[in-house]
């Protein structure tokens, strides 16, 4: 119930003027292929199993993906790649994530974004990350079974280091653990596990392949159970 309340409250957040303007502008103007859609145009809520042992941390919603459909990683190619992998490794009940209400459910996993509003060029500022970290800390504090945080890309990794410091009480280690695919950064209250972000930039070029992403989630399962 506390998780639902937090995810209800986040919908009213307007703390980052630049992102509020962008998320709403995109929602008004739309992309031609989606002109019949009523875009979400609001902050993204966390999605998944409240008893999750694997937390998946993304960057921010895509302008015509989550910002259109209202569900994280839903309705874009990154999400297609991510959920296909989660389904193969047994963390999702179906391989596709089309829109809210499509029956998708996660089991043992929960997904949240470091920044909850769609940013121009998929690039939030450090200030916007700091603003949104309060939502992130509040939400993860309500997920008591988390045992590992899979960070999709370097931005999420940086957010997770700060998140862990905020929740675990220890300062961010110096030198900072370096992000990499399959890299584990141990620490309390849970280890971080790096995974290249499933953006087209990585998946179209072969920098991230389906077996590579599956391997990270298998590794996450081993760390989490
Ligand atoms: O109303 P709902 O968001 O579909 O959630 C119903 C119920 O299912 C709630 O207890 C969370 C859980 N759940 C889940 O385990 N995995 C999901 O991906 C979505 C919801
Ligand atoms: Fe609020 Fe986060 Fe959106 Fe900023 S990015 S307006 S803090 S929900």
UniProtKB/TrEMBL annotation:
Uracil-DNA glycosylase-like domain segment(s): 45-217
GO BP: any one term: base-excision repair
Stretches of the chain forming a coiled coil according to its record: none
Lineage, uppermost ranks: Bacteria, Bacillati, Actinomycetota, Thermoleophilia, Solirubrobacterales
Family matches, as InterPro entries: UDG_Type-4/5, UdgB-like, Uracil-DNA_glycosylase-like, Uracil-DNA_glycosylase-like_sf
SMART domains, sorted: UDG (SM00986), UreE_C (SM00987)
Gene source species: Solirubrobacter ginsenosidimutans
Name of this chain's protein: Type-5 uracil-DNA glycosylase
Alphabetical UniProt keywords: 4Fe-4S, DNA damage, DNA repair, Hydrolase, Iron, Iron-sulfur, Metal-binding
Highest taxon of source: Bacteria
């Amino acid at each position: 119930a506390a998780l639902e309340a937090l995810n209800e409250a986040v919908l009213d957040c307007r703390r980052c003027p630049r992102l509020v303007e962008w998320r709403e502008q995109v929602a008004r103007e739309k992309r031609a292929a989606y002109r019949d859609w009523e875009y979400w145009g609001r902050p993204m809520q966390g999605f998944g199993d409240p008893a999750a042992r694997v937390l998946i941390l993304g960057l921010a919603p895509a302008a015509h993906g989550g910002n259109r459909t209202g569900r994280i990683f839903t309705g874009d190619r990154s999400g297609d790649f991510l959920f296909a992998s989660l389904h193969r490794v047994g963390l999702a009940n179906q391989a596709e994530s089309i829109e809210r209400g499509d029956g998708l459910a996660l089991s043992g996993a929960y997904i949240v974004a470091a920044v909850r509003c769609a940013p121009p060029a998929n690039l939030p500022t450090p200030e916007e990350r700091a603003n949104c970290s309060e939502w992130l800390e509040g939400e993860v504090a309500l997920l008591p079974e988390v045992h590992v945080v899979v960070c999709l890309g370097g931005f999420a990794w940086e957010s997770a280091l700060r998140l862990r410091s905020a929740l675990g009480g220890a300062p961010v280690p110096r030198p900072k653990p370096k992000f990499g695919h399959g890299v584990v950064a141990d620490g309390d209250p849970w280890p971080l596990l790096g995974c290249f972000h499933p953006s087209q930039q990585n998946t179209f070029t072969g920098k991230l392949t389906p077996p590579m992403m599956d391997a990270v989630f298998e590794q996450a399962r081993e760390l989490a159970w």
